Amino acid sequence: MHTAENSKYAKTHEWAYMDNGVVTVGISEYAQQEIGDIVFVDLPKIGTAVQAGQNCCVIESVKSASEIYAPVSGEIVEVNEAVNADPAVVNRAAHGDGWLFKIKAAKPEEYDGLLDLKAYKETLDK
Amino acid sequence: MNPENTENLKKTPLCGACLEAGGKMVDFHGWFLPVQFDSILAEHKAVREAAGMFDVSHMGQIWVEGKDTWKFLQYVNTNIIKRTQFKGTYSHIVNEKGYIIDDAISFALATDKYLVIVNAACIDKDVAWFYKNAAGFDVKITNDSDNWGMIALQGPKAIEYASALIPDVKEMARFTIKEIGLFGAQGYVTRTGYTGEDGVEIMLPPRAIVHLWDELKAAGVKPCGLGARDVLRLEAGYLLNGVDATGKQTPYEANCGWVVKLDKDYFIGQDALSAQKVKGMERRLTGFVLTSPGVPREGCKIFKEGKEIGVVTSGTFSPLFKGIAMGYADTDLQEGDTVEIEIHGRLISAKKVKTPFYQNRV
Fold first, then answer.
1. C-beta atoms of A62 and B316 within 8 A
2. Is B6 exposed, middle or buried (0-12, 13-18, 19+ CB in 10 A)?
């Protein structure tokens, strides 16, 4: 199961967790705090091909809209339907039940190039 | 927010108290103010169900005094300014073209002394406009904005909390003002607000306003920020000058025709507004509720049957109504008509509704 510790990170505040070539994606605890009350998530469509760094999802909070970028390239194979019914789950459990979507990685080496938790936290201190 | 960048921002007397209460501070038109303390939704709920307080010290206080005070205010306002002592009048201040400069409330403290409360971002502009148009009137105009702190105490329990400190606030009618003495200082309380709930706005000098904040906080009133304030005012259908009126719209276009009294003595903008009343207008500020999930924002285009018919000026997620928006749209739209609002490149269906979205018990 994905946790803050065993996940990798993009500088744009997404976390990624790879299991059997499928990468689960969510937003970091820091990102959910910054975004505030999440009220709607425009999830990507299953079957969509995405490139690493591509905007593929929008998170709406009361005060703003935040674009979410695919941390790796591949195909969207699953989305977290629970987020549609209860978008606030992303605030409550950003690293757990509040995951957003899964990508079947086309280039697994991109995953290795993401930051670990320590390196990600260092980017926040800057 | 990066503290290095805040040096040039104006601070209210409650800045320290807001930081202490955990306020997440932002640059709001040059003011260092809290956007939220807890969560915007929690703050919204507090105001709709109990009571919340806002630091509104950035708002402007302009005194108009002298023999011609009422005549002058009639001249620079579109509405009929009430003469009854302690009554306040909401009105628009417009230019010769009828375009909104600001919206303001003028309170009658005496026949020769009114207090005009204006928007923070418009203080300098309003004062300059008053000076410019005061020729021939026996009036003295004073910008007193820097000398006052102000708290908006809002919600169904606001009057109960206020009564503990100002006993006869219960007897005050809506839109009236009263002089008060509190914590050794003189100030004013008005039964007004910008949330669609009952409540008061209390003006006190800097030291006393901090005392009031602390007392209300200790009593259980929730500190609320600009984020919740924007959701609340939009639900209540209130115009935000600078956003819903940008110096290019008349009160008619801003759906505030009720503040224009063409029949009164001559006022600035009367000719232009009379002409528009006859000629009609193309677009009007209109309310929309999304019928599919999404959050409309400022700048989103509005379409009807593929044709662009308007643009959103204010939009948000309302806990009561989900996606809501106000925007300038074709005047031939009928209530209940279906439109599409473009959000992140997708057309989301919405319907035209009457504002206010939220009708309170006030």
1. yes
2. middle
Residues in contact with B220: Cβ distance below 8 Å, sequence separation at least 6, in sequence order? B51, B161
Query: Which tens digits make up the pLDDT trace of B39-50?
Result: 999 999 999 999
Number of domains in chain A: 1
Q: How confident is the model at residue A125 (pLDDT cuts 50, 70, 90)?
A: confident
Lookup: tokens for B318: 């309302």
On whether any CB of chain A is under 8 Å from the CB of B294, the answer is yes
Domain assignment of residue A14, given as a range:
8-106
Residue A71 placed within a domain = yes
Phi, psi of B71 (to 5 degrees): -60, -40
Cβ of B293 within 8 Å of Cβ of A58? The answer is: no
Give the residue on B whose Cα is nearest the Cα of A66.
B344
Peptide bond into B356 cis (omega under 30): yes
CATH number of B3-57+148-235: 3.30.1360.120
B41 → closest Cβ in A62, A65, A84: A62
Q: Does A37 touch chain B (CB under 8 A)?
A: yes
A37 with B40: Cβ contact below 8 A: yes
Q: Measure the CA–CA gap between B58 and B15, rounded to whole angstroms.
A: 11
Mind giving me the DSSP string for B94-117? E-TT--EEEEEEEEEEETTEEEEE
Q: Cβ contacts of residue B332 below 8 Å, gap of 6+? A: none
What's the pLDDT at B188? 98
B316/A42 Cβ within 8 A: no
CATH of the structural domain B282-362, one choice from 3.40.50.2300, 3.40.640.10, 2.40.30.110, 3.10.100.10 = 2.40.30.110
A123 located within any domain: no
Structural domain spans, chain B = 3-57+148-235, 60-146, 282-362
Name the residue among B171, B178, B176, B179 with its Cα closest to residue B87: B176
A21 reaches B (C-beta below 8 A): no
Q: Look at the pTM and tell me if it is higher than 0.90.
A: yes
- Which CATH number do you get for residue A80? 2.40.50.100
Nearest-CA distance B263 → chain A (Å): 42
Give the one of B231, B297, B346 whose C-beta lies nearest to A65's C-beta: B297
Cβ–Cβ gap B293/A40 under 8 Å: yes
